[in-house]
């Protein structure tokens, strides 16, 4: 009789194992889908926006990466990633105007009018002058004197130096050219500042506007446009790039990213605490789109076309809202043009595109009772903090910058009429300077 029980015991154990495995998978599924969503978007964008064929080179070190299976459908313009071809599958789809969107092409209700023929980007066809000293400094930014391992860790892919409105130095890594669009990640936030300035100039938006979401009936209604720009809105957030955090859930698990951000509760009274939040900028773009009665084409019409940027693609979420926190692709020369517009206080080709004094105000850090950041202003990083101290002592007080994930940097030094663009892939240098501050400091002397 005892022996006859064993099959039933084994069957029961097997059932428990299966139940535990299934339960464990469903518990971990949202975390896994963050990873597969990241990889699917990465593969889609590299294939169809950057027109590169090596998506694995842009995946950061993560224990999940060896288990990812990715396929790219060139005809359907889609990429799909899953765990070993079976679990937690996610796909991203490409469209010409909106780039790649996780979960399929966006449903755009109000794309807005197509951008009219606009200005000219003089950097598009400009020749770079051959300045040996600038070339030497750029070589250091590429890690020419480092060993192979350290040079790969540094990961510099493109550097452009502009002085007095002319390119005086430029270099690209193997496989990259001046025509290769590269992802700016959080440098997109600085471009969102320019977009906001355009709409302020046109009278569509005011920095003091509040009651930004119809569903906000509590103190969230007090949050202003300026507070979203400066990340002092007070919404609960966690910017840690890890599986299952709000930032990765927003980017890889939500079709309506702004709606997800708007659903967060207040952690601080608006205007009292500064916390870095990609959610704030994404939410801001939904507000700008609503006020301007346009969504996916807004940045193209208001910023890219007037500057003559041919490569710029600002990707959207599943409802057509631009992901203004993270997803602007552009060539290094187009990134330089965006910075040059800032350097010129919003004047381009003799036309004023931003309110006079916009950049001085946007790069001035506003004091708040408490802050987790040092030098963050209105979408730009300032080298002069609210108390007057320098964030980076080797740089001039008037220096300000765009900064993005994996080592993306664009520095503007108005007193030296200088713009420095550095793009790359440096995931192992989080919290470290990717050899660009010494470059900017030397060029600023």
From TrEMBL:
Transmembrane segments: none annotated. Residues 157-423 form the Beta-lactamase-related domain. GO terms for molecular function: hydrolase activity. The keyword Hydrolase applies. It comes from Knoellia locipacati. InterPro entries: Beta-lactam-related, Beta-lactam/transpept-like, Diverse_Enzym_Activities. Keywords: Hydrolase. It holds the Pfam family Beta-lactamase. This is Hydrolase.
């Amino acid at each position: 009789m005892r022996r006859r029980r064993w099959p039933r015991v084994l069957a029961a154990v097997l059932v428990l194992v299966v139940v535990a495995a299934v339960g464990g998978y469903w518990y971990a599924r949202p975390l896994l889908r963050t990873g597969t969503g990241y990889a699917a978007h990465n593969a889609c964008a590299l294939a169809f926006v950057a027109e590169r064929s090596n998506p694995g080179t842009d995946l950061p070190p993560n224990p999940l990466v060896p288990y990812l299976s990715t396929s790219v459908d060139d005809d359907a313009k889609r990429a799909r990633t899953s765990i070993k071809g079976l679990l937690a599958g996610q796909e991203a789809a490409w469209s010409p105007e909106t780039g790649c969107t996780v979960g399929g092409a966006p449903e755009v209700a109000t794309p807005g009018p197509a951008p009219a023929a606009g200005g000219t980007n003089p950097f598009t066809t400009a020749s770079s002058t051959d300045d040996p000293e600038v070339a030497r400094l750029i070589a250091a930014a590429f890690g020419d004197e480092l060993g192979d391992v350290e040079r790969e860790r540094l990961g510099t892919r493109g550097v452009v130096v502009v002085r007095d409105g002319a390119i005086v130095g430029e270099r690209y890594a193997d496989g990259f050219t001046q025509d290769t669009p590269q992802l700016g990640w959080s440098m997109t936030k600085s471009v969102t500042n320019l977009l906001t300035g355009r709409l302020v100039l046109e009278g569509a938006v005011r920095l003091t506007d509040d009651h930004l979401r119809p569903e906000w009936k509590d103190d969230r209604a007090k949050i202003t446009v300026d507070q979203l720009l400066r990340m002092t809105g007070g919404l609960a957030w966690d910017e840690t790039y890890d599986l299952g955090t709000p930032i990765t859930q927003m980017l890889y698990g939500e079709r309506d990213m702004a709606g997800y951000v708007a659903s967060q509760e207040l952690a601080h009274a608006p205007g009292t605490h500064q916390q870095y939040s990609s959610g704030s900028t994404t939410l801001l773009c939904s507000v700008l789109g609503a006020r301007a009665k346009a969504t996916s084409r807004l940045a193209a019409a208001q910023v890219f076309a007037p500057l003559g940027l041919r490569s710029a693609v600002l990707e959207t979420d599943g409802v057509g809202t631009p992901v203004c926190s993270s997803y602007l692709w552009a060539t290094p020369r187009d990134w330089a043009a965006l910075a040059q517009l800032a350097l010129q206080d919003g004047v381009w080709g003799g036309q004023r595109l931003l309110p006079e004094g916009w950049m001085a105000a946007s790069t001035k850090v506003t004091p708040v009772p408490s802050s987790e950041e040092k030098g963050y202003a209105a979408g730009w990083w300032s080298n002069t903090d609210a108390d007057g101290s320098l964030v980076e002592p080797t740089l001039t007080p008037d220096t300000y910058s765009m900064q993005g994930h994996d080592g993306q940097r664009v520095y503007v030094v108005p007193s030296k009429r200088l713009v420095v663009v550095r793009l790359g892939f440096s995931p192992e240098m989080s919290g470290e300077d990717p050899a660009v501050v010494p470059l900017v400091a030397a060029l600023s002397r």
